[in-house]
Amino acid sequence: MKKKGKQEVLLFVLIILLPARLWSRLVEPPSMADEQWLARRVDTIFKGTVIAVTPDPRGDPHYWAKLDGKPMNDNFDAKFRIERVYRGNIADGASVHFVWGIQEIFGHDCIDFKPGQHWVVFAENKGGELTLADDCDGALAVSPRLGQKLEGAGWSKQMEADFIAGLGDSDPADRILSLQRLGGLKLASSRPAIHREIEQSQGEEKKWAVYAALRTGDVTVLPLVKDYVTSAGKKGVPEEAMLVEFRWIKDPAAVPGLLDILANAPNDDTRQMVLIPLVDNVGDPRAIPALGESLSSSNGHILYLAVTGLGKIAHAEACKISGAGDDEMLFRQQVAACKTWWEKTGSKQDWSTN
User: Fold this and answer.
1) CA-CA distance, 181 to 195, in Å (whole number)?
2) How confident is the model over 238-287, as pLDDT tens digits?
3) Dihedral sign, Cα of residue 110, residue 114, residue 118, residue 123
4) What are phi and psi of 55, to 5 degrees?
5) Per-residue pLDDT tens over the stretch 181-239
C-alpha cells in the first residue's frame, strides 16, 4: 500500500474509533467552561436569544464540506435579541458569525446556534463583526431568566446575579445550566446560593451543585464529593468533572478530605487525580503516609507522584528523582531506593502535624 493510502486508512480508523475531539484537540465540555478565562480574551460579552440563523456567503467553505459533490457553505450568522450586555457596546439584533459542519469531530466548530436558544456569548467585536472567542466554548447555553440589574457592578457580579436567578427556573435542565455557569465564574460569593441548591436538590442537579461549589474553591463539600467519586459503578460527567477539578485545589484545609477520598478510591485513575493536588499544589506533611503507601502501586503515574512527593514534602534525598527521563530501568531503581528509605526511616516518623 502506498504511503498516502496508509494515511487515509489511519485517518478513517481514528475518526471511527476515537471519541470526537479527543485526538485532534482536547476540548472540555461546556459544563466545565471557565468564564474568567474566556472573559480575558474578549471585548464583548452579552446574554441573548437567537432569533434567526442565515447562511453567511462571505465565508469560505471548507474543502471537505460537500453536498452532492459540490462545496457546501458551512458559514452562518446568528442574529440575537440582546437581553444583557456585560461588556462592550453592542446593538440589539447583532449577529455572530459561526461555522458548523464536519469539523465538529475534530474538536472545532462545536456550536450550532438555533432560533429560540439562550446563550451567554464571549466575542471579539471587529468593526461591528462579532466573532466567537472560541469555536467550542465561546458561547455557553444559559437559562432565559435574568436577575436584578446591578448598577455599577462589574461583568462577573452581574453575570453571577443572572445565573443565580436561573436557579429558580422551572426547568431542571436550565437550573443545571445555571449551576454549571456559576461554577465557571469561580466566585466565593456564589457559595450561599449554591449551598441552597445542594440542600434542596437531588440526583444529577445535586451533583452539579456540589461540582459548582468545588469550583469556587469550597473544600467543605469534599465529603459529598467522596460519596460520588468513590461509589461503585460507572461515573457520569459531573463525577468525572469533580475529579478533574482536583488539579486546582491549593487549600491546606482540603487535605483531610482528599486523604479520605484517596483511602477509599475505587481505582488508580481516582488515586492519581487525588495525588496531583497533594503533591503539586498543597505539599502538606499530612499526606506523607499516604504517599509512602502509594509506593506499593504498580501504576507508573502513581509511583512517580509518590516518589516526587516524598522527595519534595518529606525532603527525602533517596526520593528525589533526577536524570531518569524516559529510562524506565533508572526510574525503577529510584523507586526502589525511595521505598527502602520509606520502610527503614520514613514510615517510623510522625507526619501527623502540618
Assistant:
1) 15
2) 999 999 999 999 999 999 999 999 999 999 999 999 999 999 999 999 99
3) positive
4) -60, 145
5) 999 999 999 999 999 999 999 999 999 999 999 999 999 999 999 999 999 888 899 99
- Asked if pLDDT for residue 36 goes beyond 80, the answer is yes
Q: In degrees rounded to 5, what are phi and psi of residue 93?
A: 85, 10
Alpha-helical segments (H) within 107-221:
155-166, 172-185, 191-200, 203-215
Axis-axis angle for helices 268-276, 255-263 (nearest 10): 160
d(CA 160, CA 178): 9
Q: Which fold has domain 30-219?
A: OB fold (Dihydrolipoamide Acetyltransferase, E2P) (2.40.50)
Strands 44-55 and 118-126: antiparallel
Contact 303, 294 (CB under 8 A): yes
pLDDT tens digit sequence for 92-115: 889 998 887 655 555 566 899 999
As a 3-state breakdown, the chain gives helix, strand, coil percent values, each rounded to 5, of: 50, 15, 35
Residue 227, C-beta contacts closer than 8 angstroms, at least 6 positions apart? none
Taking CA atoms, 5 is separated from 2, 10, 12, 223, in Å, by 5, 9, 11, 53
Query: 263-294 as b/e, with b when 16 or more CB fall inside 10 Å?
Result: eebeeebbbbbbbbbbbebbebbbbbbbbbeb
Cβ–Cβ under 8 Å, residues 219 and 281: no
43 three-class SS: coil
* DSSP letter string, 215-268: HTT-GGGHHHHHHHHTSSS---HHHHHHHHHGGG---GGGHHHHHHHHHT-SSH
Query: What whole-number distance in Å separates Cα of residue 184 and Cα of residue 311?
Result: 34
3-state secondary structure at position 321: coil
**Considering all CA atoms of the chain, what is the largest pairwise distance in Å, rounded to the nearest integer?**
74
